[in-house]
Amino acid sequence: MTDTTDQLAINTIRFLSVDMVEKADSGHPGTPMALAPLAYWIWTRHLRQSPDEPTWPNRDRFVLSCGHASALLYSLLHLAGYDLPLSELERFRQLDSKTPGHPEYGHTEGIETTTGPLGQGISNSVGIALAEQLSGNEFNRDGFPVIDFRTWVIASDGDMSEGVASEASSLGGHLGLGKLVVFWDDNHISIDGPTSLSFSEDVVARYDAYGWHTQRVADGNDLEAIEAAIQGALAETARPSFIAVRTVIGYGAPHKAGSHDAHGSPLGAEETKGAKRALGWPEDAKFLVPDEARAPFTTARENGKQLAGAWRELFGHYAAAHPEAAKDFSARLAGNLPEGWEEAIPTFDPSEKPIATRSASGKVLAAIAPKLPQLVGGSADLTPSNNTLVKGWSDFETGNRSGRYLRFGVREHGMGAIMNGIALSKQWIPYGGTFLIFSEYMRPPIRLASLMGIGPIFVYTHDSIFLGEDGPTHQPVEQLASLRSIPGLTVLRPADANETAEAWRFAINHRSGPTVLALTRQALPILAGTAAHAKDGVPRGGYVIADAPEGETLAAILLATGSEVSLCVETHHALAQEGIATRVVSMPSWELFAGEKQEYRDLVIPPAAKKRLAVEAASPLGWHRWVGDGGDILGIEGFGASAPYKDLAVRYGFTVENVAARVKKLIG
Predict the structure, then answer these.
(1) pTM for this structure?
(2) Residue from 104, 271, 412, 502 carrying the catalytic annotation
(3) Tens-digit pLDDT profile for residues 313-360
(4) How does strand 582-586 pair with strand 543-546?
(5) Distances in Å between the alpha carbon of 411 and those of 80, 168, 379, 407, 667?
(6) Is 412 annotated in the active site?
C-alpha cells in the first residue's frame, strides 16, 4: 500500500511535469503522469547516484529511452538535488533553458545520454551495460569492486516498435548483460491512437526469446508489485531483465486518461484542474513542491553521498594496492591516452606494393592496439572485409568478459547505438565496421554521437563504386555528401596507406566527436607525397601532394580524396609531359580543412587559381565550395553498375585520359 509521503511525492512529479507542459504549451504530459510511481520508486529506493558527485564513476545509470517524456526526468532531477532549479522547469522547452524538449547529454546535469529518437536510449543502454562488464573485468580486483553498477531504463511502446531496439536487445540477451534492467511502459497508446492499430505482438514473449529474464506488473501504481519485480531482477545475474509495467497514460485526467489525447499535447487548463482535483492536488497551484514531498529524495541524496564517499575511500585503498591499474582508470576517465602510443603507428614506403586502405587500416590497428588497452571494437558480420579484428584478440561473450572484439552480427543500426553507449563510459574507445553503404542504417546513432560530442570511430570500407561487382545496391554514391553534412562529424577518406595511418592517429586522439573512416576495397599505390607530408597534412584536412615545378604558373588545381588522389597524381605527371603545370591537393577531410585558418587554406588552394577540377567517385554535392565558380567536378551522378572496378573506371571517366581532357577543357 502506498505511503502518504510516497503518494505526495508521486503527485508532485506528476504535476510538475503537467505544469511544465502547460506553461510551455508544448510537450508530452501523459507519460510522466503514468510513470511517476515507477520512476519515483527507482530513484528513491534503488538508483545508486549522487547529485553531489554527478559523475561518480560507479554510479548507476538511468536512461529515459522515451525522451519525449523529458518533463518526468527534469522533475526527478530537480527533486533529487541536481543542478536544475525550479526556475529551469518553468522554462521548459524555451530557448537556452536546461530543460529542452528531449534530454540532452552534456547540456543538463544528470542526463546520461541524449534520448528522443525512439529506440536509441534502450540501445545505448546495452552499450552502457556492456562497457560496465568490460570495465569491471579490466579494473576490479579481489576485494575492490571499483566498477559494479546497474543500468536502469524506462522504455515506451515506441521504443519497442523501433527496429534498432530489437537489434540491440537481441545482442544484449545473447551477451547475458545481467546488470541491465529495462521497464517497458505498456500503456497501449501511441500518437495515432491505441497501439492495436499497428502493434499486436507479445513483447514479453519476444524478450523471452532474446534470452532476457521477463516479468509483468499489472498496475503501474502498485509500488509493492514494482518492488517485487525489481527484487526479481536483482536476483537474476546471468540475463538482462525486462519488466512490462501496465500503466494508464494521463493517469488522473478526467477525460483524457487512457487516451492518445494525453500523449503529445498539453492537457489544457480545465483538464489539468480536473486531474489535480481527482488526485487531491490544489487546482490552482503551479509548480508546487511540498516540503514533505522532498523528504524521500533528500534521504536518497544522503544515501548517494555516502555511497559515493565509500567508493572514493575504496578507490583510495585500491590505488595503494594496485597503483598502475588505478592510474590507468583515472587516465581513461580524464581522456588521457597512454604515453608513446603514437610511436606504434606504422609508415608505408612508396616502394611497397599497392594496398587497399581497408587492409592498411587492419595493419594500423594491429600495430596500435597493444599500446591502447582502451580500444575495443568489432564489425557487423563483415570482419574479413572490414579488417577490424586484431590478431590475438578474443571475442567478448558470456564466458569471456576480457574479450575486446565485438561480434555485432548483421545489426548495423544496433551496432552504432551500442557503440555510443560504450563511448559514454569514457573508459573505452569503440570502433565498428561495415560497408559505407550501410552507414544509411546507422544515421541516427552517428547523428546523436555528433550531438553528444562523444568519440566512437565508424570504420566504413568499400567506399565507392570501385567495390565493383556487387553493383549499385552496395556502391555508395551519396553517402559521403550526406555524412559530411552532419555537424560535428569528421569524415576522413584517405588516399593511401600513409593517409590511413594518419586518419587513425586523428580518430584515436579526437575524443570530442565521432569519426568516419571511408576505406577502399581496391588496392592503391603508396604515394611519395603522403610519405613526405601525410603526418602534417592529414590533420589539417587538405594539403599539396604534388605540385608544379617552382617558378611555373599553375594552369589548374586538381582536388581529390581517397582512391582518386592517385589518379590525379598520375594525371598531373601526364599533363606535365605536355607542358601543363598542375597542383594536386589531397583533401582527406573537408571538415578539418574548413577548420583551418583562411591563410593556410589560401596557401593550399590559392584564391587566384580559379581553374580547379574536383575528382571524387561519389556525388558531386558539396564540392562547389572548394572548386568555386570557375571550377569543374568529376563525380558520380547515377547509382553505379555491376562490373569489375577497372571497367567502371572507364565507364564513369575515372581515367588519366578523361581527367586530363577535363583539365584541358577547363583551362581552354
Answers:
(1) 0.98
(2) 412
(3) 999 999 999 999 999 999 999 999 999 999 999 999 999 999 999 999
(4) antiparallel
(5) 37, 8, 9, 10, 49
(6) yes
